[in-house]
Amino acid sequence: MSPGSGKKGGEKQEYVKHPFLLSVDDVVQHLHTDIEKGLSSARILELQKQYGQNKLEGEGGVKWYSVLMKQISNAMILVLVLAMSLSYGVTDYVEGGVITAVIVLNVLIGFYQEYQAEKKMDSLKSLSSPSATVLRDGEITTVPSVEVVPGDIVQIKTGDTIPADLRLFEEMNLESDEKILTGEAIPVAKDVDAGFSGKDELTTGVGDRVNVCYSSATVTKGRGRGIAIFTGMSTELGKIAKSMQGKQRKPNRSLSRKDGGTLQPAKGLSLRIWDGIGKFLGLTDGTPLQRKLSKLAYVLLLCALLLAIIVFGVNRFDVTNEVAIYAISTGIAIIPESLIAVLTITMVVGMTQMRKRKVVIRQLSALEALGGVTNICSDKTGTLTQGKMITRRVWIPGVGIYSVKNADDASNPTRGIVTLGPAPTSRLEAEKQEAEKADELDQKRSGAALKFNEPEEKRRRVQNRAAKEQDDNDSNDNEEKSETPEIVPELKAFLQSTSLCNLATVRKDAESQKWLTTGDPTEIALQVFAHRFDSGKKKLVESMGWRQLAEYPFDSTVKRMSVAFRVPEEERTLIFTKGAVERILDLCVTVGVGEHEKKMTEEMKQSVIEQMNMLAEQGLRVLAIARRDWPEEINERSETPRESVERDLTLLGLAGLYDPPRLETKDAVRECTTAGIRVHMLTGDHPSTARAIAKDVGIIPKDLGSLPADVAESLVKTAAEFDGMSDNEIDAMPELPLVIARCAPDTKTRMIAALHRRGRYAAMTGDGVNDAPSLKAADVGIAMGMGGSDVAKGASDIVLTDDNFASIVNAIEEGRRMFDNIQKFILHLLVSNVGEVILLIAGLGFQDSYGFSVFPLSPLQILWINMLTSSFPAFGLGRERAAPDIMNRPPHSNKKGVFTGQILADMMVYGVIMGACTLLTFVIIVYGANDGALGDDCNKGYNPSCEVVFRARASVFAELTWLILASAWEFKSLRRSLFNLGIDHTTPANPSGSGSGNGNGSSNQTGGEKPSASDPELESQSLSEGSTWQRLRPNPNGRFHLFADLYENKFLFWAVVIAFLSVFPAVYIPGLNTSVFKHTGITWEWALSFGAIFVFLAAVEAWKALKRRFGWFAPRGFQDDLDRAVEEDRLDQGSVCVKGFLR
């Protein structure tokens, strides 16, 4: 009996002998599975209950005690603990009890919220965990790896992480990297038919069981199918899981003298102690923003101690109970106790909203980084484009060009029509044909046969649109009577090559009557084209007898693929090859077959290249199709190198494939442009194809002649040109390329390095195994969730669940929204702290008859304000929608972080205003109306002499509460007036608080009309801040939208209203007011508290107006002469060209 390791919550997985010693039929019979149909849904549920999930014990899961210790150890709690201790020490048990309750409540609420948040983050991360392609109920589907069960039929290909231990029954040149198990760096070649006669499990090592693939190994080459035999802790990896789950220590932490000399033990121990202290205090653990805020917390703690010393000094260090209580008040006032909890919840909510916008966050640091991205390096296929290719043109030497028209379904070979036309022999002839067609379309566009005097580009665009409409009309009118062109020998040879040198499948489902495809989009397009002529691979193999002998998979280094097939009823072998045109042409000795066969001369090669260029200029991806006779024996185990096979080829033709841009790509690129983000397209396509798509989506201007010659020359490069340059030459370029064609993995890494040398903050997309280095090198690595390999996902920071470029823009917008909101609620919390400190420090001069300072606010009033009044509006600010111009301004600086010059200046200005207003109220009541009656010992409790002080405290408490609440509404925008926020109320409300209102999540924008003379403030803002005029004119219909603007964020609105009303019971409830808060009911003093609101609002509005008027702290403008040079082109084309080349 060969048992697998036991698994918690599941049974052991046992076999008579280890599956590598069993035949495939024996394994199938033991697991009750079916190679053709896979497991049924009912059987899967049974197996999942029987064996549990396919994961290792101890994977993931947040530890509750770690979260609890994190809550206890932050500086906000520590200062409260200090205040509690002092309160008990001076026998003020009421205050000490309340502070104790606040500590317990704060820890419990913070623990619950963060524990739930961490669990939610774990669940979100699991969405980006490795996936498996399995056959279930007769259909291929993709499931998370944890759902794989013994008996599943699993498909694997290059780049996949193997989800479970598999007994292979089919493979083609399959190799896997098993160094995680064996330590051997060389991939292991697999062999389904390997024999192990006379061997057993003990004498055959893991690396020698070549008919088995192992969980967590990576497929480095080829493809295969296998039966899942062990899952979870029963896998080979599960047997060493405990040793694999240990955490990696940081460098120089060793305690061995062998690693660092005699002093290494002392050095390692000290560093370990520092790591422990730093982690406990939050200084070395967490995201960059969390570490910055932890440092802020301890700086504030030091400030609290400094303030306490100041209090003691003013009282000549005669530290009585009263003096100690005052020191407690100042210490509590400077600490924003709820800051960490607000930040954690805001970030977790942000991760949830990212998930709704098709983005899974794998690293919290990516949330902070997204808003500062200045450059996006994106792949083309499937990201900027739809990733569903259609064979639009096929050039057959000596025959002509086959065109596919009106094909609206990439998977359906019956949709659309195929026509045959002559191929232009030169570019001059092609231009002549285009001119003739344009004249014909001009006639059809105008009943009067008038010619239109239009710009050339616009005329050509209208002609293309009219041509498409005419094609559609022609196809609709003639669909029934048009027939597929006959299959001539030249076309037959082309179809055989495209069909057989192909791994894609195309079939019509009998039940749904839908055409279903599997495989690479490029191969699907070629396979569908072959099916149009009833020459699909399945028919050729199963009905006509073609038999595959060998396969040389596509290799990114040589950019081609080849297969060997035995010709039916003939004793000869044909090699079929497809790949990049320039890689195939050099291997060809002839062109065409039959009577059209010609020698591949230099003149002929140039003719082929010209045909390729004409196809590429139409935005088509061009592939070359070739074949040759092979005189020798060849099979799957032949040692014949591909260099010997892929030579002396005959070129059969060129295929032009079209991958149309996604409908939302142009808008997404436009948003990047207006947001000061440059988009770079790094693609493996031909330069002409890449250039055509880049122009179509607006990455580069359609008329490069409007740019300076050196800039225009640098915008489009091939990988060979770019990689051939030294770093100094790249740095000397006026602009880095926006399009790199024929891109290799190393090219992406060099591009990231070049961007970093220019001080840029770059995001990089990737989907393959070879993209992992560039994803790691980028500031934000973005993996494709649908088409990406598990290796790429593991190296990334975020994963796009829809592989859509627009989702990257959504993520950046969401990152900017979160950054803005974090700034807003940090400002909101710190402004109140500054106001309280100013009030209390000034209050040191208010001394009673005993010489003790009388505090204008009691410690419990401060706690009430900081914990309850400020916290919920801060949560509300964290849920604010995106600012109207959030994607119309440059990226923020990740070096400065949230504490920008504007935030620091606003904090001081608003804090001083708040402190001055409350201080003035206290002075008016005590000195203006009551001749300075400060009473006796009013810090300790109520007595008749303290009536005036208690009434003044109540007024200051109400006033400070309301000013803080008013500031929450004012901070909805740091620059705009509260009465002119410019929120678009026609946009449906978004629960996330994001500004997204359209389908792809981009910001809605009202028209970009120029400011009029009646809008002097907005005109000044536009001119001083350099911002574009999109969504910057609030309330265009002239109506007053203040209430609607405030009510738009319902959480914030009700947090402010409820906190506003809570002041009245806090002031009037007997016992609570005098014993806890140390204030009493008031009458006429309410007028001062109410009046201060208007004074505060006026002062805040005046400061905002000054910032707008003089452009203080405004985002740096990013429109320049180059942008204006392409403006006419941009408006005419209806798409945005790249902005900000020459910042």
Word description of this protein:
With 1143 residues, this protein is α+β, with helices and mostly antiparallel strands. Among the domains are: 19-61 and 129-245, Calcium-transporting ATPase, cytoplasmic transduction domain A (Distorted Sandwich); 390-437 and 486-658, Calcium-transporting ATPase, cytoplasmic domain N; 662-803, HAD superfamily/HAD-like (Rossmann fold); 1116-1142. The chain has 41 helices and 29 strands. The strands form five sheets. Strands 12, 13, 14, 17, 18, 19, 20, 21, 22 and 23 form a ten-stranded mixed sheet that branches. A hairpin with a 3-residue loop joins strand 12 and strand 13. The longest helix has 38 residues, at 805-842. It is elongated, with a radius of gyration of 36 Å.
